[in-house]
Amino acid sequence: MAADDILWRQLLTLSRRPDLTLQAQLRGAIAQAVLDRRLPPGAELPSSRRLSEILGISRNTVIQAYDQLTQEGFISARSRSKHMVDPAALENAARAAGARPDAPVRRPDWTGRLTSRPSRTRHVMKPVDWYNYRFPFVYGQPDPTLFPIAEWREVVQLSLRSVAIRDWAGDRVDADDPLLIEQLQKRILPRRGIWVSPEQILVTIGAQQALYLAASLLLKPERTAGIEQPGYPDIRNLCRQFGARTLPLAMDHHGLRPTGSLAECDMLFVQPSHQNPTTVTMPLARRQELLQAASVHDLVIVEDDYDSELTFVGEATPALKALDRDDRVIYVGSVSKTLAPGLRLGYVVAAPEFIAEARAMRRLTARHPPSNNQRAVALFLQLGHHDAAIKRLIAAYRERAATIGEGLRTHLPEFEFRPPAGGSALWAEGPADVSMNAVAAAGAQQGLLLDPGAVFFDHPLPPENFLRFGYSSIPVDRIDPGIQLLARLVRAERRGALQAGVG
Predict the structure, then answer these.
(1) DSSP codes joined into one string, 122-138
(2) What is the number of other CB atoms lying within 10 angstroms of the CB of residue 391?
């Protein structure tokens, strides 16, 4: 049986009610599919002969059903053998029921029913077709030329063996793939100086779910969360989702400053490796100072170890979790950021008491992450492919970061920036009289995709002269031409020409 035949059988399932004729059952099935919009206006129906063969009923039954539906305005005949859903089918059905199609309906007051409106939060936006832009200085998107296709194909094929399928295909309820936990425990975490038992590890649907679990379990209206300023917008959005107060904390060239303001906090979100968006790497002495302050003020720290593997010079600084002696750090990591964001595979390491509740909360919201991805990533780690992939990324990103720096020094010397020590972005400050929001809007019309920096500041009137250059997805040969275009747009903005429509 052809695939289309199977689809029609599923769409037009006959009720087999003994009190209805087959013709009535078929009419009802087609009419319901039209009313439910599963058969959209203009959709062509199979011929009476073909539908009778698909459903195993008499052709005369189909012909009679089609005739009746035509009279009722659900379908219309193009010819003796071709029928389609009438474009006015819904209006005809409403009229037959004695109702005006434009009559008001009693819909729920969704505005009043919704208890929160997360769609209204400020967050980083990017077009879904970012890859069509000539100069995509976009953050968090992969370069397909750097993806380890052969290695990933190998582990996916291994995960599709019958024995492996038996392991991952079932419902794990709230458990994770033991092989992945083992690889995280023995291969990934020790490189960050972290040695823990399996019951201290939970796999998540990306780092974002790990951050959500921490906020949902530890925040409430009477608690205060310290956040980096500037910082990742969805951290503050998460905190406010649970009614917590957010306290923006100042940063310098060494990262978050452990000032007396920490005394006002119950919880602290920090990205010490390559802070988002500034890319600052917190040195060891500052990390130790921050942990000491957290101990004095009895803070819980959520450490988002963003891009920690992508270090351009020397060894990565040990994670806060590696220095934590009080079990107060909740460590968040990710494999999907360095492999493919679409995999959505992160993990959290914390005290057993927290992990137990986070596991239960994960079960309530998503049960467990896709087990097939867990097994494929476990094999990817086990076979050493992740190590090789990281080396390729570091080499490519180091070159791109250096090219952006050279381009800014050549074409936009008025911009201030610090060359990143790793990661996948560069943070720059332009002249105070330049709105990067306006520059980005004009640039998008010419194929230049940028991340304006205002969204990263938790302030009603944030500065608009900052810009984040993501370089994970832009080819190195397009960087300098892209910065030249940016320079022209910045000059136009300073002249006020962008508002006049001149680029």
Answers:
(1) ------TTGGGSSEE--
(2) 11
Cis peptide upstream of residue 230 (ω within 30 degrees of 0): yes
Reference 255, options 347, 193, 317; nearest CA is 317
174-188 burial, b at 16+ Cβ within 10 Å, e below that, comes to eebbebbbebbbeeb
- The one-character DSSP state at 57 is S
Q: Which of 303, 231, 120 is nearest to 459 (CA)?
A: 231
- The span from the first CA to the last CA of the chain, in angstroms, equals 59
Classify 14 as helix, strand or coil.
Answer: coil
Report DSSP state, residue 276: T
Nearest to 456 by CA among 22, 72, 124: 124
Strand partners, 303: 270, 331
Nearest C-alpha neighbor of 440 from the set 187, 136, 101: 136
What pTM was estimated for this model as a whole? 0.80
The label of the residue with tokens 């892209």 reads 482
Q: Residue 451 corresponds to which tokens in the numbers above?
A: 């991340």
Rounded Cα distance, 119 and 130, in Å: 21
Would you list the DSSP string of 281-306?
A: ---HHHHHHHHHHHHHHT-EEEEE-T
Q: Compute mean pLDDT per 10 residues along the chain, 503 residues long, and list them.
A: 72 80 88 84 88 88 89 82 82 57 66 85 86 92 92 94 90 93 96 95 96 96 96 95 95 93 96 94 96 96 92 89 96 90 94 97 94 95 94 95 97 96 95 94 94 94 96 96 97 78 47
Smallest CA-to-CA distance from 96 within 59, 118, 71 is with 71
CA distances from 284 to 273, 310, 319, 334, 449 (A): 10, 17, 9, 22, 35
Kindly provide the b/e burial profile for residues 200-226, where b requires at least 16 CB atoms within 10 angstroms of the residue's own CB. Answer: bbbbbbbbbbbbbbbbbebbeeeebbb
DSSP per-residue codes, 231-256:
--HHHHHHHHHTT-EEEEEEEETTEE
Query: In whole angstroms, how far apart are CA 472 and each of 138, 145, 310, 412?
Result: 8, 11, 11, 21
Q: How would you class 139 by CB atoms within 10 Å of its CB: exposed for 0-12, middle for 13-18, buried for 19 or more?
A: buried
